[in-house]
Amino acid sequence: MSTITAAITAVGGYVPDYVLTNKILETMVDTNDEWITSRTGIKERHILKDKDKGTSFLAIEAAKNLFEKNNINPEDIDMVIMATATPDMPVAATGVYVATEIGAVNAFSYDLQAACSSFLFGMSTAARYIESGKYKKVLLIGADKMSSIIDYTDRTTCIIFGDGAGAVLFEPNTDGYGVQDEILKSDGIGRQSLKIDAGGSLIPSSIESVSEKRHYVYQDGKTVFKFAVSNMADVSAKIMERNNLTGDDIQWLVPHQANKRIIDATSRRMNLDDEKVMINIHKYGNTTSATLPLCLYDYESRLKKGDNLVFASFGGGFTWGAVYVKWAYDAKK
Fold first, then answer.
1. I want to staple 141 with a disulfide (CB 3.0 to 4.6 A). Which of 40, 104, 167, 274 is the partner?
2. Active-site residue numbers?
3. pLDDT of 170-181, one tens digit each?
4. In 212-322, alpha helices (H)
5. Phi, psi of 276, rounded to the nearest 5 degrees
6. Report field, pTM of the whole predicted structure over 0.85
7. Tens digits of per-residue pLDDT, 203-237?
C-alpha cells in the first residue's frame, strides 16, 4: 500500500471589519506610528468590536469561507480541531460549538491550546489522524479574539495583537504531497514571561484579580523576543538540514506573525530571499492561533503544486516548532 500523508486541500479565512490603526492607538496610549512600525512591522490590526461575539464567531466565518470557496459539504468533515488561546468559555469546548454551528454534524471536535503555537501543533495532530487511515477530512481552525484579553492602556501589548481566524482542510494523499516532517518543542522556563495570571485553577477569578488587571496578557518583551529569535530560527534551519533542503529548495516560509524582526532573523538563518517569506503582520498584527492559516489565506493564489513550505512558530509557555509541507494543489482560478 502507498504511504498516506496529510495534505492541505483547502484554505479559508476571516478578519473583522473594524481596523485599529497605529494612528488610532496614538490617541489611546503613549506611542506613535513610527515607533510601532520600526519595532514590530505592524501598521494596523482588525478588532471584533461586538461584545456578544467571541472567538467562535471568527472560527465559524473562516470555516464557512473555506466551504463556500471549495464547494465542500460540512457533513463530510470527520473531525474539527480548534486551535485557540481565547476559547469562548473556560470549560465548554469552543470547537464543539463551532462544529455544530457550521453543520459538521458527523464530526467530533476539541480545543488545542499551545499559545501562539496552537495552530502549528494542530497541524501535527491533524496529520496523525489522517495518516492513521481512519479519518478522511480533518478541519483545523486557528482563531483568536485577542482583544478580549488585552489591556488597551498597556502600550507594551495593545500595539501587538489583533483578532482573526483561518481554516485549512487536511485530506489523505498518496502522491507524496502534504506534511513531510516536523520539529516541535516546548520549555516551561517561559511560564512567567508570557502569561495571563488569573482565571485558572492557580488564581481563580475574584474581585481582586479583576481590579488588579490580572486577566490581561502580560509579556516580558525582551525575554520573549530573545527566545523567539533563537528558537524559531534554530528549528527552521534544523528541519531544512534534516531534509537536505537549501534556501533554493524552499519556495515559502510561513512564519508566525509576532514581530517582523523575528521573521527576518528566521529567514536569514534559512538563507531565504525576502520574496519567499509570507508577510501580513502589517495588516493584522499578531492574531496568535490565526497567523499561519491567514498567511495561507492571503498567499493561496501564489502557491503551486509541489512547492516546499516551512511553517514556523513560537508561543508562550514556551512552545515552538517547524513543520515541512509539500503543497498539494495549484490555486483555483
1. 167
2. 116, 256, 286
3. 999 999 999 999
4. 221-242, 260-269, 281-284, 291-299
5. -100, 10
6. yes
7. 999 999 999 999 999 999 899 999 999 999 999 99
